[in-house]
Amino acid sequence: MVSETVPTSWLVYCRPGFEHDALSELQHHAALNEVNCVPSYGEGWVSLTRSDGEPINDLHRQAAFNRLIFARQSLAALPALALSRDDRLTPVLEQIKASRWSFEEIWHETPDTNDGKALAGLIKALTRPLESMLKKRGALRRKAGGRRLHIFWTEGDRVQLGMSFPGNRSELINGIRRLRSPSRAPSRSTLKLEEAWHEFIPREEWDARLADHMQAADLGAAPGGWTWQLVQRGMYVYAIDNGPMDKQLMATGQIDHLKEDGFTWEPPQRLDWLVCDIVDKPVRVLAMVERWLTRKWCREAIFNLKLPMKKRWEEVSRCLAMLENSLSQASVSADIACRHLYHDREEVTVHVRLKH
């Protein structure tokens, strides 16, 4: 049957515990595109499968990965396979043959769980034999449009094969950016801002957009995890917080620590950056950031929105719609992006860059 050989499913990875939110996001895009789908999920992943058995490719392409919030990876996937422990490779080879897929590389991936990590030894043992067989059959080859085969192992005897395409995927294994925590940073929250820069700013633009001698404000700065990142880039920082800042960080001479309320403080002049990781209701943080952006007090902003326990997708959607509406009414043109980062927990990170 055709439905057994074409990718009918849209498979995404997500942070464990956020399956409902990732699924709600996928269902939102499916509804926008008027595609009827059947949902399924497991720990750290969710998928939608077309009810009519047609390929998922159009929906997968139109709901571009860089616009998704809760997805760590986005794949057009074939039906899941149950494997025999005596012969795990043959079903995989047969399904690839039936799909007529060709690709330039193979990634073996697992859910971001302890059970997933426990599959590493099995995957390592199967990697080389599978690559050898697929090369002989011509499926794994040098020039295949940059396509990548993802073999997603949910269990030792269950996999799902997915395809990713250049420009519409994460280029990280499991969609996870692992960063080393700097020993001198005052808090582990420093990794949130570093990951956000990697996520939202092309690496070749860092020297221009995260430049030496720029000026930034860190609202809710103490003890200085985010300020530390700004200082490392050579920026001068207004650290706004009633709490104490790290003494070694203050010794750099690049910080003006003002014991004021981050929600009401106003900068003395236009700044290059606003960053904010204040723990408060999303709507309150959003109102403060909107004031900065509509008055053009900064050129770029990165801020976190703390999420409720339930209906997190709905809350994020509402906040982003409010932000877009506020900027539009103020005739402020901007690029807005939002992502649930690996180093985030119960929050999402938003990046805004004014165009003028």
Automatic annotation (TrEMBL):
Provide the alphabetized UniProt keywords: Cytoplasm, Methyltransferase, rRNA processing, S-adenosyl-L-methionine, Transferase
What positions constitute the catalytic site? 306 (proton acceptor)
InterPro entries xref list: RlmM_FDX, RlmM_THUMP-like, RNA_MeTrfase_FtsJ_dom, rRNA_MeTrfase_M, SAM-dependent_MTases_sf
Per its record, the protein catalyses: cytidine(2498) in 23S rRNA + S-adenosyl-L-methionine = 2'-O-methylcytidine(2498) in 23S rRNA + S-adenosyl-L-homocysteine + H(+)
Q: Name its GO BP terms in alphabetical order.
A: methylation
Record Gene3D superfamilies? 3.30.2300.20, 3.30.70.2810, Vaccinia Virus protein VP39
Ranges for domain Ribosomal RNA methyltransferase FtsJ: 187-279
Q: Which residues make up the binding site for S-adenosyl-L-methionine?
A: 189, 222-225, 241, 261, 277
Q: Name one GO molecular function term.
A: methyltransferase activity
Entry similarity comment: Belongs to the class I-like SAM-binding methyltransferase superfamily. RNA methyltransferase RlmE family. RlmM subfamily.
Q: How does it assemble?
A: Monomer.
HAMAP family (UniProt xref): 23SrRNA_methyltr_M
Annotated function: Catalyzes the 2'-O-methylation at nucleotide C2498 in 23S rRNA.
Name by which UniProt lists this protein:
Ribosomal RNA large subunit methyltransferase M
Query: Which gene underlies this protein?
Result: rlmM
